[in-house]
Amino acid sequence: MVNNLKITYIQYMIAPITETKEYSIVINNSYIKLIDQRSDQVVELNEIDEMIADVEKHRKSEKIPLIIVTGFGTMLTNEARERLTHLAKSKTYKIAIIIHDFTQRIMGNFVIHLLNNRRSLQLFTNETDAKKWLLDI
Hints:
It is built from four helices and eight strands, in the order E-E-E-E-H-E-E-H-E-H-E-H. The chain is an alpha/beta fold. The longest helix is centred in the C-terminal third of the chain and has 14 residues, at 102-115.
C-alpha cells in the first residue's frame, strides 16, 4: 500500500478537494494526475464524467497522459468501468492507474483484458513506475 505519494515538479493544481469535489487534479508539464483517495468507495459514472470533464479542460496535446491515483478499496461501477475502457480505446488517453490492493488489481486486469490493449491502460503500485510507462508515448 502506498501511503505517502511524492509529487515532483508540479506546475499547478486545479479542482482541489473541497466539500463539493472529492478529488483533485494536478497539472504537470508532462502529464495530468487525477487523485481520488477516498477509501472503500464505489465511484459512479457521473463522478467519472465530472472528473474527465475537468481533465479535458486542460488538454495540452492530442493524447492525454493521465495518472489516476485511487484510494484503498475504491472500485468503479460497471458503467464507470465501461467509460474508462471507452476512454482508453479512444486513443485520446494513455492511462496509468495506481492501485493499492488485490481486488483493485483483479478488476483492473479485467478491464485491461476487455480493452485488449496494454498500450493505453496499465496498472501500477507506485507513481515512479507509472510515470516511466506513461511518458514513453
